[in-house]
Amino acid sequence: MTETPLLLTPGPLTTNPAVREAMQRDWGSRDPAFIALTAELRQRLLGVAHAQASHVAVPIQGSGTYVLEAAVATLVGGGDTLLVLINGAYGERMAEIARRMGRAVEVLRWDERQPVDPATVAEALAGKPQISHVAVVHCETTTGILNPLADVAAVVASAGRLLIVDAMSSFGALPIDLRHMRAAAVLASSNKCLEGTPGVGFALIERGVLEGCKGRSPSVSFDLHAQWSGFEGNGQWRFTPPVQVVAAMVEALRLLEAEGGPPARLRRYEANLEMLLRGAAAVGIDLYLDRALQAPIIATFRAPENPAFRFQTFYDALASRGFVIYPGKLTKGESFRIGCIGAVTPADFQRLASVLGQALAEAGV
Ligand SMILES: *Cc1c(COP(=O)(O)O)cnc(C)c1O
Questions:
Q1: Res. 2 pLDDT band, cuts 50 70 90
Q2: Is 64 in the pocket of ligand 1 (CB under 6 A)?
Q3: Which of 6, 99, 275, 359 is most exposed by smallest CB count within 10 Å?
Q4: Residue 265 sits in a domain of what CATH number?
């Protein structure tokens, strides 16, 4: 068997061996030891965003999209209207989730190379009193663009509406401080910047907001109020939890703290991105976004103009050298993406840089 490749993707990611090791034992889901582990998980998740005084942490089984769906179902009621701010595929997905659920949805769209504009959001809110909730994607993983979360949050709070943040690809690295920013719900998952294994989504929800959401969800499984009541009642998950994934996630959160928390993790990811961009520039591969808009999470590159270029061959050439990259997700133009997150360091991107030229040559360029 070949060595495990490095996953330079938006998740699942390369994990620390200690995280994978934590999955090597079984846990009784209703055993006191696992109840304690769940309590530690919920407490640590609040700590990452400094939300202990204001929010509760509600994990749910599934991928990130499952918690988006559960949050919309739980928070946005039949008489409410959700405004979704869209500059990529994940914004579109949030709107689709709400529409399918029969919720009233409004959208504001920007080009995928432009960040969401808080002033436009303020105008829309002033003109549409029926909007009760606003959803924004912090880092739009489609391109890797960073949206101005704190400014959007300020606009939404001053208009007296509730903000739902898809922080899937930012939570644990990019700054989210709920002592200084109002957000009704912040949503993320185990397998992105937290560097855990896939299988758990979670929501940090303002306690007062969640208290008002009893019975609102039209779904039994996707009901974060009921899920929370379960945790508060007996400390247990309502339905079978992915026990090994939870154990790995707690270990990943301990490692995040040991690394120095989100600021230290962000510095490592920024160093990864710098090294990646240097390597790409050296072989003439261009970043798709303006550098100032590119978050150190996942970078989108334009495919080489050369008509001989074949992405699949390029992908295979890198994979055979131990690097798994990611296809592009742009609506127009050929592109590919390389992630900076996970248990990877600038040294890994230096090694990547040393093989990019060969891989391009194999791919016809
Ligand atoms: C990864 C991601 C999701 C959720 O994706 P899953 O495949 O369901 O885990 C949602 N929003 C953003 C911005 C993401 O990066």
A1: low
A2: yes
A3: 99
A4: 3.90.1150.10
